[in-house]
Amino acid sequence: CNVVVLISGSGSNLQALIDSQGADNPARIRAVISNRPEAFGLQRAAAAGIETRVVDHKAFAEREAFDAALMEIIDGYAPDLVILAGFMRILTAGFVRRYTGRLLNIHPSLLPLYRGLDTHRRALADNQPEHGCSVHFVTEELDGGPVAVQAVIPVAPGETAESLTARVHVEEHRIYPMAMRWFAEGRLRLAEQGAMLDGDTL
Ligand code: GRF
User: Fold this and answer.
1) According to CATH, what is the number of the domain 107-133+147-202?
2) Residue whose CA lies nearest to ligand 1 atom number 1
């Protein structure tokens, strides 16, 4: 299963995906693409011997042109799966349509709660007893696609946005490799009725 990973920053999720590769895992990360040349994740990829590419969004006046350049590079790797791992650009409908069913994202909340940014602070402000993260198939609705897997953690007394961020990250690093493997093994897919694992609707 050929995988292309898109990043914008640190790439700690990318690292977890890289570390999960192995002989018994059919997922193979063929390339890592960043919209920011300085993204640390590019160094992580290079250290793992994975090809890296940069498509700098600042070089494009229009979102459509940026996405077109991105798609051309992605398609050069003939990916079965495209993974967004902290990729901080909103994608055009044309991009999402092209990869529907083979495009995954991770979001730091228990979707459908807290789409968008600043999720940890918002969950705390609402006194949520639980918080977490979700891997979901990407659809045209921002952070709105069918959820494939979630991790739930209790919000501890005295919790801050920082402590919550760190604890949710640990869970992200656990569930994203899981979802990549399930997809690569043909166990996870997007159907008419939503995400399916081993033939069951999630
Ligand atoms: C993660 O919190 C992820 O949920 C969000 O962006 C962050 C990426 O972190 N979409 P990293 O670059 O993988 O460290």
Assistant:
1) 3.40.50.170
2) 86
